[in-house]
Amino acid sequence: MKKKISLISQRPSRAEAEQAVRTLIEWIGENPEREGVRETPRRVVKAFEEYFSGYSQNAAEILAKTFTEVGGYDGPVLVKNLAVESRCEHHLAPFVGRAHIAYVPDGRVVGLSKLSRLVGVYASRMQTQERLTAEIADALDKYLKPKGVAVFIEAEHFCMKVRGVSEDHAMTVTTRFLGSYKKDSAAREDFLKMVRG
Ligand SMILES: [Zn+2]
Asked: Global pTM?
């Protein structure tokens, strides 16, 4: 019998991961020695490294550098249409869409590209859209300490599109509001108007 694998202490080797893909290929009834398929285990493991690169990154590092010279700007900062590409933890099927993130600075701001990287850190893991939304908002709240945070994600889930219920056009929307956005419904309305506008 094979020993139990714990994610943290004993990661399987690359060869073991490739063997696992080969096993799946055999299990579906395909011939893993066929020319077009022979290199597939190697390619799939390499793709997995990209899909799940978020496990080796952390939000604290990305949000470590902030700027205090904002010229007295105290309005919200909204970045719209950030690409979301993640994988559902239930089927490993992709879900893809857009994230819209706003925060109200409390004397310091973060480079705009960092918001895109922040989405990537959490999206490049096995996820649910709900948790992805919460983790992005909570990280901004924790490391940037703004007055408020709003996160809006809309995404299509391929596990719904191409299997099961075959919902081709269903769009899942999740939101999380913290601080001033949680307290102030007018701020939430403004945010939603800007996201849709
Ligand atoms: Zn799924």
From this structure: 0.91
